[in-house]
Amino acid sequence: MDDFLAFTPVTLITGFLGSGKTTLLKRLLAHPALADCAVLINEFGEIGLDHQLVERVEGDMVLLQSGCLCCTVRGELSEALRDLLSKRERGEVAPFRRIVIESTGLADPFPVLSTLKADPVLRHHLKAGRVITTIDAVNGLGQLDVYEETVRQAAIADCLVITKTDLLTEDTVDPLMARLSAINPDGRFFFAAAPSLDADSLIAEGADLNLDRLQSPSGFYCEAPIPDGGEGHTRRISAFSITVEQRVDWTAFAIWLTMLINRHGAKVLRVKGILHLEGEENPVAVHGVQHLVHPPVHLERPVAEDRRSHLVFIVDGLDCALLKRSFEAFTLAKQSLNPVA
Ligand SMILES: Nc1nc2c(ncn2[C@@H]2O[C@H](COP(=O)(O)OP(=O)(O)OP(=O)(O)O)[C@@H](O)[C@H]2O)c(=O)[nH]1
């Protein structure tokens, strides 16, 4: 067997909610070194949207949903990886040379990596490649203060990719870098906004993860099983989705979202959606992270047969029913609310 088939590297892209994992993944997938890789995307929430935005939905892209990789879907991760390996063996997928996993923004990377190490089949076929952690330059410092997941994601990274520096003045990123260096003195910094992100160095071979770091002196390693339902995370965090059957009135939606973010921005850890708007042929992707709402992106093609609009919220201590009522009041849209966590 070829060496690469014996030990396929697994690159893990992690980083807090909305920090730019999917954006980075899309960019890396355009790189020749990642031309022949299989991709696993894990989303926290019943309706996964990221795989629709990566624009490469083939047999070698797998979506793991309805839970977080580090808790509810660890078994699914092992299964999905074994399934990919056996499909490759049988020639049912292209003979990929690498696997890239994009975890949810809430995933603790330590249990994810220990799954690779502990699984008797996987550990003979896969090797841990680089851990790439995205950190949002706008929200990163605040998130490190409040969400332990963010600290864990930074602690284990080989590469710390700071995103959204284009939205800051240069010097304001220094405190974030100092904080990250204190958490992870060995992590190498990259900047997503750099015109030519050094993708070669980001995904380079030969610098495989030192699994000893799983027993980090900072005491991050968590051997204890995390209960189902994502309870390993801050308990007030919940995810839900809103599905809108008819086309959305953009003006009403934008006013509603602005008011929500002005009032509760700190609690809206993530909002993302694919909206079909009145008068528009193709959908629009909407992204918000706490007080930061990114400009909507007009997609160049329909992303799926489904012409309904979907919005996913991950909130910290916000009442889902209240959000639904306010959404209804402003957009006068008929929608259904699906609590998922
Ligand atoms: N200005 C700017 N925007 C960015 C950058 N990186 C990501 N974004 C935007 O940030 C938003 C969220 O990016 P995603 O790539 O979806 O983030 P994510 O980490 O995959 O999000 P989740 O999977 O929901 O946790 C999108 O609107 C991106 O266009 C960056 O470097 N600069």
UniProtKB/TrEMBL annotation:
<protein>
    <submittedName>
        <fullName>G3E family GTPase</fullName>
    </submittedName>
</protein>
<keyword id="KW-0547">Nucleotide-binding</keyword>
<feature type="domain" description="CobW C-terminal">
    <location>
        <begin position="237"/>
        <end position="331"/>
    </location>
</feature>
<dbReference type="InterPro" id="IPR051316">
    <property type="entry name" value="Zinc-reg_GTPase_activator"/>
</dbReference>
<dbReference type="Pfam" id="PF02492">
    <property type="entry name" value="cobW"/>
</dbReference>
<comment type="similarity">
    <text>Belongs to the SIMIBI class G3E GTPase family. ZNG1 subfamily.</text>
</comment>
<dbReference type="InterPro" id="IPR003495">
    <property type="entry name" value="CobW/HypB/UreG_nucleotide-bd"/>
</dbReference>
<dbReference type="InterPro" id="IPR036627">
    <property type="entry name" value="CobW-likC_sf"/>
</dbReference>
<dbReference type="InterPro" id="IPR011629">
    <property type="entry name" value="CobW-like_C"/>
</dbReference>
<keyword id="KW-0143">Chaperone</keyword>
<comment type="function">
    <text>Zinc chaperone that directly transfers zinc cofactor to target proteins, thereby activating them. Zinc is transferred from the CXCC motif in the GTPase domain to the zinc binding site in target proteins in a process requiring GTP hydrolysis.</text>
</comment>
<dbReference type="Pfam" id="PF07683">
    <property type="entry name" value="CobW_C"/>
</dbReference>
<dbReference type="InterPro" id="IPR027417">
    <property type="entry name" value="P-loop_NTPase"/>
</dbReference>
<keyword id="KW-0378">Hydrolase</keyword>
